[in-house]
Specification:
Layout: E1 15-16, E2 21-23, E3 26-27, H1 28-35, E4 39-43, H2 44-57, E5 63-65, H3 72-80, E6 84-87, H4 90-98, E7 106-108, H5 115-124, E8 128-131, H6 134-147, E9 150-157, E10 160-163, E11 166-169, E12 179-180, H7 185-194, E13 199-205, H8 216-228, E14 236-238, H9 256-269, E15 277-279, H10 284-287, E16 291-302, E17 307-311, H11 320-324, E18 331-332, E19 342-347, E20 356-363, E21 372-376, E22 396-401, E23 404-409, H12 414-418
Parallel strand pairs: 4-22, 5-6, 6-7, 7-8, 8-9, 9-12, 9-13, 13-14, 14-15, 17-19
Antiparallel strand pairs: 1-2, 2-3, 4-16, 10-11, 16-17, 16-21, 18-21, 19-20, 22-23
The structure holds pyridoxal-5'-phosphate.
Length: 422
């Protein structure tokens, strides 16, 4: 007999009633009626609280990693709450600019920035370009000649790689991101940039991975990076993102404030001058728990081996289970307080067997066709990785707050899907 859904997986302040769940003061059942399914529902209060926590915990310059979930409303919200917006492509830069985020609050990432992307970033005066490779230094050098000054960080690989719960040291060479410290490339890149007119190096950046639950890997990286910059006169050290979040009951992760405190202590311990800005780029830790996805069950197939419940979305709105084998939980929106004794494989509507949302989901005995099933903690890398596989239109996204819902991304239509036909 599986317990009812653990409310801590839902957005802050969610209320579980006998026959409904209320998020941001709004009924999930009512949202499904008004906006149809599948639907991403983000609680604005949770998003704002996480942004504010990050802004307070790190030094000015801390950014929201927009690849985790980006639309104009989200970029504005992060900016309003005091965060910079971290983009890694021209497309992400474009949305942040359309949202009204000033260039001076945008950080440009990417391991293969095109001349156009770099030129646009320089044009709008981004706060930092995080330089990844020697080819990029060459491109920047020829661009700044004409366009003034570029403020940079150098991305280094500290030789610490995070693999979910465990950390393993890997060969410095084996990453497509950044400059290896051990091989001497990072030092050579720094010297080259210092010698390039128009490039101003503010410090180094490292990002050791994603969905990390333990601070040890960050401390290990800090030791390597602190040692690397010991004799440089830098004013910023960015530790990247990667802080994990619980997706299923029983998982535990440090808060953003605890993560920052641990890193600060580690930086001091390794002799980093207190005047050096400690910055970061959390993505998942800001947006993941803020959202739930609502689906409608359309088919139930009880086999000898297991029962399949098919919903009206799938790998096109949440590819993480297929890509990473990620686990999720599910609940029946009209029966959130019920025990969940029914094991089902929750699958989507796409034409392949791999289209699984939850390999073994636990739901109330009565949950079946026509019911509204929700998966919590879907705010990160769901919509942002969504596809049109099988020509399925992408779902709508609503923000809820204080009893009101506002549409921030409308549902795609077949006309949208046809618009590229030449
Ligand atoms: C993906 C990424 C992030 C954000 O990672 P999260 O796990 O979502 O916090 C931050 N910085 C860089 C460079 C990244 O590639």
């Amino acid at each position: 007999m599986a317990e009812p859904i653990d409310g801590s997986l839902l957005p802050d302040g969610a209320v579980l009633l006998d026959d409904d769940v209320v998020v941001g003061g709004v009924s999930l059942r009512a949202l499904a009626e008004e906006f149809a399914t599948p639907l991403f529902v983000y609680d604005e209060g949770t998003l704002r609280a996480r942004c504010a926590e990050a802004a307070a915990a790190f030094d000015p310059g801390v950014a929201f990693a927009s690849k985790s979930f980006l639309c104009a409303a989200m970029a504005r919200l992060a900016h309003d709450e005091g965060l910079c917006v971290d983009v890694s492509t021209g497309g992400e830069l474009d949305i942040a600019m359309r949202a009204g985020v000033p260039g001076s609050r945008i950080v440009l990432h990417g391991n293969n920035k095109s001349v156009d992307e770099l030129a646009s970033a320089i044009e709008v005066g981004v706060r930092r370009v995080v330089v990844d490779n020697f080819d990029e230094i060459g491109r920047l050098a020829s661009l700044v000649g004409r366009r003034g000054r570029v403020d940079c960080l150098v991305r280094v690989t500290p030789g610490v790689e995070a693999h979910t719960h465990e950390f393993i040291r890997t060969g410095q060479e084996d990453s497509k991101f950044g400059f290896s410290i051990v091989s001497g490339d990072a030092r050579r890149a720094l010297e080259l940039m210092k010698a390039t007119p128009g490039l101003r190096v503010h410090g180094v950046h490292s990002h050791i991975g994603s969905q990390i639950f333990e601070l040890d890997g960050y401390r290990e990286a800090m030791a390597v990076v602190a040692d690397f910059v010991r004799d440089d006169d830098f004013d910023e050290l960015c530790v990247g993102g990667g802080l994990g979040v619980p997706y299923v009951a029983g998982e535990r992760a440090p808060s953003i404030a605890q993560w920052a405190a641990g890193l600060r202590e580690s930086a001091r311990g390794h002799g980093v001058d207190p005047s050096v800005r400690l910055t970061a780029e959390p993505g998942r830790a800001i947006v993941a728990q803020a959202a739930v996805t609502l689906y409608r069950v359309g088919a139930r197939k009880a086999l000898e081996q297991r029962t399949y419940l098919a919903v009206d979305g799938g790998m096109s709105d949440n590819p993480r289970p297929v890509l990473y084998g990620s686990g999720y939980e599910a609940f029946d929106v009209a029966r959130p307080l019920d025990q969940r004794p029914q094991p089902v494989r929750l699958v989507g509507k796409h034409c392949e067997s791999g289209d699984v949302i939850i390999d073994e989901a636990w739901l109330p005995a009565a949950t079946g066709v026509g019911d509204l099933v929700a998966t919590p903690v879907t705010g990160a890398y769901g919509y942002s990785m969504a596809s049109n596989y099988n020509r399925v239109p992408r779902p709508a996204v609503v923000f809820v707050n204080d009893g009101r819902a506002r549409l921030v991304l409308r549902r795609e239509t077949f006309d949208d899907l046809a618009r590229l036909e030449a």
